[in-house]
């Protein structure tokens, strides 16, 4: 059984990783839960019979921990990923986003090259069983898509979190004034790195992985929390939009249209184990659908990490693809944020 | 009273089918002189054709699927007559007439999948027209990306007295039948409208998701063209405005 150390013990760990790892108890066991808040670390660790710590070094120095899951706030992801790799861990599962800057990604690339460690980014839709099944059938949709559309319309997270686990009390968040242009830029950046990031690796694959050559042509912030970003990659037009608001119905879609085929994917919401997406390719020959599987991307990412640790390295995306997708995410976040800033009257 | 209609050769099968579904209202006739309604093909310079018919004393005109033309010429035409009916493939869908107008929408997105032979410019016009029919008017485009096979727009429109952010995506493909999907967002509601292939009577659908659940708005199995033809006989005053059409052509002109 593979020992796991969790870095950060907030809502994502409580609602996603703990229940998921509980279903995979023959593969993984949680050894240590580390959080900078000692009460949180102890409470979460007690739920799974693990050790609690407030010190990252306790996880890095524990040889019984082979896999480190980094679930801390995004600004710490890169630094902690590098530290875990350099500590000799076999694998790092880093929650999205992998990094917030190109410099951070260079550091991670160096650490990967030097250590040969395994890196998985917890972008759940990359691992969604429906996406995994439909990928080999994408054919001409990859690189020849004329338009790609990622649309996420979701209720706020608390609607799902409370149905996934008993959450520990959190500090109430104060909402900054969204009429402040700087706040809107910060929100847009956070929305890309926190929400759009779920599907940007899929979008990136569909448009042929142009990386930073993709041109960000428009960007706007939507209230109360959302974004619309236009991207042009050669002759392919991409619309990436997201909106969180207090309604009940999740509408989470990815669509790619080529001359002769349409890919349409409908994803289930985050946090709750609501099964996989459904993915359909429609063309002249009719429609082909996959999905409606009982597991979602969260469980699949851990299962495939287990397979990779057993030697099946192609069970997870290559480091090159992981880094390229993360570069694309940072590029979209940076350029969209800058573009929004340019639209602000002086 | 049954109206005899004259149609150009290329629209004969379409018009015959439409007239057959409205047998008490229309019959396809020859020659044009005997016709009570003259149908024009909107794929060419229909404004010039309409002006010619007006000059020839033919005042009851219906333009089938009007495409992009010079907006100034449409203005001129509008100044001459108010009896021209525009039969539009998506904007005429009956579902658009039953949409709630009292919801404070802040954003709307529109996705249009067009047939491969449909020029992007025409597909965009049809999309702008369906947005207007849904109540999103006075579109001002801020960013437009146009390729040979698609378009991506962002901008602002007006819904009731409110400014609304707009984004629109167009793609030409043979994979699926042409259709539009509009989705409008307010702080508490999401309205999704689908406008099906106008060649069929598949119904447009409208679904409103709000705090209290989800409501499917009334559905009508009538194509946009049949509805327009029916109303042209029953209540011609409900015909789409030529001046609004000219305004939408100017929006299109600002992009392409």
TrEMBL record, chain A:
<dbReference type="GO" id="GO:0000166">
    <property type="term" value="F:nucleotide binding"/>
</dbReference>
<dbReference type="Pfam" id="PF01408">
    <property type="entry name" value="GFO_IDH_MocA"/>
</dbReference>
<dbReference type="InterPro" id="IPR000683">
    <property type="entry name" value="Gfo/Idh/MocA-like_OxRdtase_N"/>
</dbReference>
<protein>
    <submittedName>
        <fullName>Gfo/Idh/MocA family oxidoreductase</fullName>
    </submittedName>
</protein>
<feature type="domain" description="Gfo/Idh/MocA-like oxidoreductase N-terminal">
    <location>
        <begin position="4"/>
        <end position="122"/>
    </location>
</feature>
<dbReference type="InterPro" id="IPR036291">
    <property type="entry name" value="NAD(P)-bd_dom_sf"/>
</dbReference>
<dbReference type="InterPro" id="IPR051450">
    <property type="entry name" value="Gfo/Idh/MocA_Oxidoreductases"/>
</dbReference>
From TrEMBL, chain B:
<protein>
    <submittedName>
        <fullName>Uncharacterized protein</fullName>
    </submittedName>
</protein>
